[in-house]
Amino acid sequence: MSKKYNPGEPYDYQLTLDKLLITPKFFAPEQEIVYRDKVRYTYRDLFKRINKLGSVLEKLGVKKGDVIGIWDFDSHRYLEMFFAIPMFGAVMHTINWRLSPEQLIYITNHAEDKVVFLNKEFLPLYKAIKDKLTTVKKVIMITDDEIVEDPIFDGEYEALLKEGNEEFEFPELDENTLASIFYTTGTTGLPKGVYFTQRKLVLHTLGLATSAAYDSPAKITVNDVYMPLTPMFHVHAWGVPYLATLLGLKQVYPGKYEPEVLFNLLVKEGVTFSHCVPTILQMIVDAPVAKKVDLSKWKVIIGGARLPKGLALKAMDLGITVMAGYGMSETCPLISLAYPKPKMKNWDREKLVDILIKTGLPVPLVMAEVVDENDNLLPHDGKSTGELVLRAPWLTPGYYKDEEKTRELWRNGWLHTGDVAYIDEEGYIQITDRIKDVIKSGGEWVSSLDLENLMSLHPAVAESAAIGIPDEKWGERPAMIIVLKPEYRGKVTPEELKEYMKKMAEEGKIPKYGVPDRYIFVDELPKTSVGKIDKKVLRKKYAE
Questions:
Q1: Domains by residue range for the chain, with CATH
Q2: Quick check: is 528 catalytic?
């Protein structure tokens, strides 16, 4: 404790990240943290290593407010940095190493990274851009095996920790101290930086914990074994490592995402809770080994894109419990979870899955509304569609060093998501599209997500994307870009899929004008750096 208090002076309790470590220190000191098949240690070790890392930052000359960049795979080291860097008073910059070299140069310089922790696997990429980085003073190597001798490095992570002080005392900080920053990539322009204070990260963790109290199929409890399948550079792995640590869960970090490693860890370590985007779940359910292992204890929250009903059913057939959630980089990210209400518990699977794939109910402390183009509130009637707007205590205050885009994000006191949605009478949010992805045909809106959801139910379809293609008469017409399952390739025609969608229209599941005209088969769909289907690329490719 760095501050001394006078007799009778109350403690000024600040919501800072060190407070998340109080409970697990006595509740779960011997609980395990696992990294691939390489590292296994206890929470007691974690606390010592966090302290040592704090002393390392001090020796490196890091000052309060300095930005520290992290280039690493999901690991125990990343978890240590999740705590030590903000607790020191520095700012953690989680870097999406999948970005282009130009984007990596921009975000490093824009954030003004002073120190970079660099996994040696990214050394060639980093060396290719290092001469254009204007603020970096020191680079620390991260490696799972032998140390690389290269003058670019100012030390190696484990060697520095070995000399660190396990009794290091972190400073007491104001809860409004900046804790983290990362950059979100849109369809146009440069990446935008979102940032969060200590207070916001603690409140987000408590929001996650409160939402877990609801009796949902995929809730997280102190008995779970946690393994993220969302990169830790992406919105703090959705904030779940903070919650897992607070609850004292066994945590398993897979490093680089390799199917064989993931399945081995799932089975060997008894993983029961994960989160990922739909494309990762698709990869897992399609893997031949999925049918050979017991996945019946595995719960998965799906976010980042809509969970198609067909994919949810395929996962359930393998024994996996799935449920959708929603959030954005700008929202830290938790906003809603698709937990069913008590009265829905005994519904049959087909009816219940329609609830589990919804965007969901706002979690405690989140205010969600839908507004028209003039920012007027729309009724919660399940029909009135507009832009989803939000308020919550953990949303980003704005875009880093960008007042103009911050004003666009925050209008009339609401964070504008850019998502088209409605809210039904039960309070469930349903996003129907991104504003930029909605298909406008003959003056009517066609939901690309509805088209994709219905297409996912066809037995021949592995993945699909609906996009608008320019049309002289209608302005735009929907087209489906489809990846067929291997066993159906060459056996299913576009005409058959069009007849299937016509049947969906006859059953009232989509409007007749929403039936796509074109069905284009491809071997794979382009993905963004965080695993979402990149419709920008598809629209450009098929615009003509």
A1: 17-276 (3.40.50.12780), 437-544 (3.30.300.30)
A2: no
